[in-house]
């Protein structure tokens, strides 16, 4: 059953994030112009018309989650037993807890945790992103509303309209927090009571946007003399009058909901908030059915919950008794059905008609459903007018019956306070009531064998001594489990703040108990939908929504659609809305009523079996006796003796909460607070200060899901996104990073120094990342150093030694943050990089930066610990490999392997001794393995996502590299350049400037080198070409082998790739300037070939091209031969491209006079074992990769779940002190590898079969031998007639300059086109020079791009 629950959670997360992704893509230009028309053509049928798309994309996902979550919650409730979760000694536990700590503790947001802050930031980013995209799209296609309207006025209107769109986004989330019986909130550990602040935030935010929307339109109408528009109620479009009515109503609700108004005039707030029904009606009439479907899920679920509450409130609850306390508080005891289950801290809404027929007030349930199966109690303190009237009614008259209606109870779906070692509960006044239910639950749990019961400290502050009588309520009136009070560790510190001395004993007033006569019309409190209420709720949600769709489809198809087909007639815009609202309400009422009636019958059968239980009158208050014990009374004769002994009363003092919390020495302390706002803020500040890491405000999540799942989910979703984009747009879509809208942020800002060429975007993210590291380190140190003096004293060390040890640990923690990002840039086939418009080649510098930073932190971490151990005479710690906890020796092995990789990766060493760098970098396997052994697998989950994706990519590359590729030919140029032409499958497509990694076993079986693909997958559908310049030992050996053996007919080659951009954006520029040095020309060969193909096919406007290339000698000019493929020598460029080539020979001042050496072509014989280059996962590679990522992770979770449950748990019993950490880490790493290898291998074999079938259909193409005359040779042979030369147009386009270098500044400044793409590839100095020119700001039309293998 546990596996089903995990699977269902993953389904919830996938669907929910997909829903959020739709909201993210909604304002984009791609969605509006490309995806939306296609979706509408398929989803907007005659049954749903314009609502179809939004019903599928916006309504269905949340309704699906809501229905399925009911099933999940039902399964969760049916678990046989609840077991306390043992604490973890792992470092990551406190790290996760820090995310649950409060960050903000004051207005305007109240108490906000780090997790909540992150989601708030993401939501605000979503709103800003949406507004920016809406405005970007609308400003690009302005619709002028009138001839006299100016452009700036139209833009002003557009801004006002888009503010309304953003407000609608807030509305989509507005009703979820106030759906009390929501099945979605329990999934994330929330209740309507704890999430009401989200409703407040969303309400304020949406009202700000809607008011700005309204004011903006009024100003626009006033400026353009269209004030009459305010009175328009259009029959074919939005109704302005309806919107104005809605905003007026909303402003009334908004003003009365402001905190000061709400606190002082609650009735005014309460009654005006009932205007929400009118607000929804006119809001939907204003926006129309299409936008209504976008916000429908929240309203639909709220209406279901509201109608069920209405049905429950029609019955009067059977009130058994009331206990009146002398402090003005009273306890109401209700009869309840045995099947009604609820958890501690649940709340119930109560209505007393004789006080007010409309007002409902929430109160905490103090009873325990386990120890009191037939009773439900709530405590009410008379602090407001309603409660004061009720108290007066109970105390001043001899009531024998009281009509009460209830809604609820509502509360958390589970409780987790038993997992803490200690509990500190802080209550002020009536704020003690939630803790009564917790203590009663703990009393019940203490009756179970082998269960951990935490130590309990209850800190309660009261104004006067009469309030102490509230402590009587800790024990139920029935006395259930009262004898267990002495067997739990309970300490109660009561503070009476407004009395300085003990009152006289005779001043104590006894409790008054009122018993009510039963009425046959009253019913015990029961779940509205019976014991299986979650299943019934799921059935109601699913059935009512399906019924709504069916009826809506029928009404639209057979009533509205025929009306619209009549000539010149359109069904009224507002009537469509009224139909939707009517059908929603009708379907909900019908289905809910049927379910309620069916459940009512089963509840009636149970009601007949409930007997009124006689309850003895309570004795004198133990709290009262706790401070009169000095009156020579014998404690042994007092009842509730153990409770009395647990209470200590302090008069005339307030609790020193800081001292109390810091004095708690337990390793895991749960802190709960309920009371005045000031008290809650004070406790939150103490827990947020970081001075005591053992204080936890909320529960802790699972490590692997918190850190690993989100990134793997993003990777999977990005694969799907890339697949969709490829299918819709081919390879011509602009990537995110290359959008013209972001062009200014892509300009270089730094062009020299250790970081190389850095754009504004990269600098911004780097600054944010450094800020994160500094903030993390300072926060860690602040928390550690807070009690460093006490720690040093306990460990009998100097303070500076204790600080050194803490600093060493924090350095390692911060280094791990860098490690979490380290592997993303080197994952060549990464979907995340492609989604961001990056390639592994362009992002390798990020890997270098992260590697240097992380190794700096880890080295400092290791050195600090060595110094610490040597100073404290613990140098033997270096040799310890602990069974439980951190292994020092494993960390030292990891650090040594890291240092070796680090030392050989410096530029001077890497370039001079590349083989040393290459081979030592394979030590990353040793580094990762021993790092995991060092910190444990749980903590290494922080860096697992990046490494997991890297392992998938690495294994897929390994599978691809095992195949031998069929070489077709090789062209050997006299400038020591080799062009290899490889056979490829026609289905393999790639973008210009892509790279492949080659391995030639005849030269080295281990070395792999990257080279640019010079062919075009469109121009050369069956060939893939790479150009190799002999500059290093490996390339020299290859050139010598091919050039010295003219009769060679076989060459074994392995390949990985190609890798590159998922899109090209060259055609968005008016002009392309490509600057190269030496072999740096190779990326531009593929660009020119691709543009030749597009120009030939007439696919859009082709930019003019200026190729500036610098060579050392005239022999290098032969590289220009490679611009045209060997298979098409008669291709005419001049008719297709505006191409100009400026070639500079820097070391020769005049053309050479010696004879020209012709290129040599070698043709290879085919081999039956060779295969063509193909995509490792076939044509749908992104979908297959998504399946590998998701499936392998699910398999991994299942494996570790089985391992933990059936192997480790019987040994360890969740104590984390028995089973070896290293063994656990080794098994987890093994399962990671098994999951990836199994899934990837199956997918690879499946696609290998498909590729084999495709390759059988490929016929060997007879490629004519190339003409042995190089066009570059004619550049310096003036005696020949140009008219007789082959490739005439290429020759005419080329100008050669001898003995000079290109004046790049002059060349670029003379480019007058409005958009000039500047691409540079070559030596570092050249790239920096071009980057400096583009970043100078002197020419805003220059857009810089760089390519380099100088890693």
Question: What would you say this structure looks like, in words?
Answer:
The chain has 1351 residues and is α/β, with parallel strands linked by helices. Helices cover 48% and strands 12% of the residues. It contains 39 helices and 30 strands. Strands 13-11-10-9-14-15 form a 6-stranded parallel beta sheet, with helices on both faces. The chain is globular and about 125 Å long. Mean pLDDT is 80; it is low at 80-97, 611-639, 697-702, 731-741 and 1259-1286.
Give the topology.
Layout: H1 2-25, H2 29-43, H3 52-77, H4 91-100, E1 102-104, E2 112-113, H5 114-140, H6 151-174, H7 196-223, H8 240-256, H9 259-264, H10 266-272, H11 276-287, H12 289-313, E3 319-324, E4 329-335, E5 347-351, E6 361-364, E7 375-381, H13 385-396, E8 405-410, E9 422-428, H14 433-445, E10 455-462, E11 490-496, E12 512-515, H15 533-564, H16 573-607, H17 622-626, H18 641-646, E13 647-651, H19 657-662, E14 669-674, H20 677-688, E15 695-696, H21 703-729, E16 748-750, E17 758-759, H22 760-785, H23 788-795, H24 799-822, H25 831-835, H26 840-871, H27 888-904, H28 907-912, H29 914-920, H30 924-935, H31 937-940, H32 944-961, E18 967-973, E19 977-983, E20 995-999, E21 1009-1012, E22 1023-1029, H33 1033-1043, E23 1054-1059, E24 1071-1077, H34 1082-1097, E25 1104-1111, E26 1139-1145, E27 1160-1163, H35 1181-1212, H36 1221-1256, H37 1288-1292, E28 1294-1298, H38 1304-1309, E29 1316-1321, H39 1324-1335, E30 1342-1347
Parallel strand pairs: 9-10, 9-14, 10-11, 11-13, 14-15, 24-25, 24-29, 25-26, 26-28, 29-30
Antiparallel strand pairs: 1-2, 3-4, 3-12, 4-7, 5-6, 5-8, 16-17, 18-19, 18-27, 19-22, 20-21, 20-23
Helix pairs in contact: 1-3, 3-12, 3-15, 5-6, 6-7, 6-12, 7-8, 8-11, 11-16, 12-16, 15-16, 21-32, 21-35, 22-24, 23-24, 24-26, 26-27, 27-30, 30-36, 32-36, 35-36
